[in-house]
Amino acid sequence: MLFKEIIGQQAVKDRLKRSVKEGRISHAQLFLGPQGSGSLALALAYAQYISCSNKQESDSCGHCLSCVKYNKLVHPDLHFVYPVALSKDIRVSTDVATKWREVFLDNPYITLFSWFEMQDAENKQAIIGVDESAEILRKLSLTTYEAEYKIMIIWQAEKMNQQAANKLLKILEEPPDKTLFLLVCENEDQLLRTIVSRTQLIKIGKINETDLINALIESNDLSPEAAANISRLADGNYSEALFLVNENENAEQNLLSFQKLMRASIKFDPKAVLPWIDEISAAGRERQKNFLNYALHIMRESMVLNYADVSLIKLGVEEQGFVKKFSPFIHTNNLERFIEELNKAHYHMERNANPKILFMDLAFKFNELLNLPKPI
Question: What is the pTM of this model?
Answer without folding.
Answer: 0.71
